[in-house]
Batch of 2 targets.
Target 1
Amino acid sequence: MNPIVELVDNSFIFIVAISVLLLLGVTVAMIYFVFRYSEKNNPKPDQSITGSTTLEILWTVIPLILVLAMFFYGYEGFKEMRNIPPNAMLVKVTGKMWFWHFEYDNKKTSDTLLVLPQGKDVRFELMSADVNHSFYVPAFRVKEDCIPGRTNHMWFHTTNIGEFDIECAEYCGMNHSYMLGKVRVVPEKEYLEWVNRVDTVKKTDSLTAPTGTVPGTVKTDSIKTTQPKVDTTKTTGNKKDTLKVNPKDSLKKNK
Ligand SMILES: [Cu+2]
């Protein structure tokens, strides 16, 4: 199993469990107190309670232990996230308004679709071409900001074959909610075929060539579904901006 997924899930379950226990405890105590100390049952208020050192120590020490335990679980996951395996393969990720651009070791590029081999550690260099974005892959429990002018890092281990969602987790403008993508984890042999295909079709638009080479994916044109052209052209008004956000045009510029 992916170590990050396990650690993040552990800390999440731990915090939720403590929260549920506290909620139940507080609710039960509250309901009990409503009846036990109601005016009806106690016409004359009890003045004898002045304080309790034991209670004060308990309600200070117990929450402190709980909060420290939450921190411990959280930190374990954080450490793993920061501890990038030295021989992890590298993918450069650039957030652009409003799609994801990927560059692999051999300079092959793809947009929106990130293809990865199964059973590998993958390191990501995260950048932005315009505004702040946040690269978020829920299935792998990782999220890291893409900030213009700096490079951030994150990594995960690919375990299961399949397709997993990519989202932008930082509001980045009008089409932020359409800034979706997919991670496709395939067997290593299939990945190598895909990633090396670019050398033979260097001049070919990465939108059409790479996706067509992975078996069973020929029909997926994820760019089309995530980039509603109508929105960008109609509301931006400025011709230069419109050109920038059109994925096909920005691809041309990238060459
Ligand atoms: Cu966004």
Note: The pocket of copper (II) ion is lined by residues 133, 168, 170-172, 176, 179 (CB under 6 Å).
Target 2
Amino acid sequence: MTALTIEAIRRLPKADLHVHLDGSLRLQTILDLAKQEDIELPAATPEALSVAINAGRNTGSLVEYLKAFDVTLRVLQTAAGLRRAAYELGIDAADEGVRYMEVRYSPMLHTRQGLALTTVVEAVLEGLRTAQDERGIHANVIICGIRNISPERSLEMAELAVAYKNRGVVGFDLAGAEYDHPAKHHRDAFQLIRNNNINSTIHAGEAYGPDSIRQAIHTCGAHRIGHGCRLREDGDLLHYVIDHRIPLECCPSSNVQTGAVRDISNHPLKFYYDLGVRVTVNTDNRLITDTTVSKELYLVHTRLGVAWPAIKQIILNGFKSAFLPFHERRAMLRAYAAELEQFERDFRPTLEAPLHLESQTRDTISASTLPDSLS
Ligand SMILES: [Zn+2]
């Protein structure tokens, strides 16, 4: 028996670098906010609402998966609602041992009732700061442009990120429908971000092929890649990502639900890790994907057959890839590495026990998915 139970993982220090505010609310909070604001929802109980938004279910495509956000966004149009959602996300993450989190969202999606963009940003930062004061979880924000809205609005979001640099906003992202909406259309936003020495990440290789990842890195200058499931289709680019230590923000369960990978045993995470990619494990959407970082790491351990030493490294990769100044990152890394090593000393005999894969063997993950140039 391995000592790496989900309960043990919950106690370990972890980072969540890819988590959407509007996909990570509590069900009851959606119901409460809708009642307060007299907003119509597709269901009246937490159970029925969970079904209505397809929480934790396979939807077959990214576009279908994103439909749940039509519901969550309805209740995120007031400063109080945003503050509460951000605060509760901080508490829920702290409850499962997340010590550092970068919460992303697009402020322009929260102005339907006339909120100023600055009010939106400040409400979210306040909610996160309250959670930080109460529970010690360190949380920052990544502002998103949306592929399928417009390059002009992305530029406006980039300007907002510049305005809040060093005030809780640590990065810029491009989210939304990937197919037919190339990142290069949003290059002005990324140029502004780069000129202001701000970090960026881009959702890429989730609902489109390696060209999308290439554009994210080479046209837009992304420092991290969200998902990158289809990076395995281009061996040359894969080596570039390895050589330049570009972190991948992997979100395994979400990738199954959007159809980016066929099933969890087919997820390329272990293949990437074994080749030397800086892989991190994240939630994407705690509500819509019905997950936690602990759950994702447990799946990676039990379904992909990733053993403890690699799980430990993947956890450290999360802290190492944070959009924080180098010295802060190094201090965080030292502290949490010491905690992970203590866990390792306490449980060494059982951590070294052979791992029993719950489903398919690791052969199905590697050989069949090797790009031609690497096989
Ligand atoms: Zn995402």
Note: The chain has one domain: 6-374.
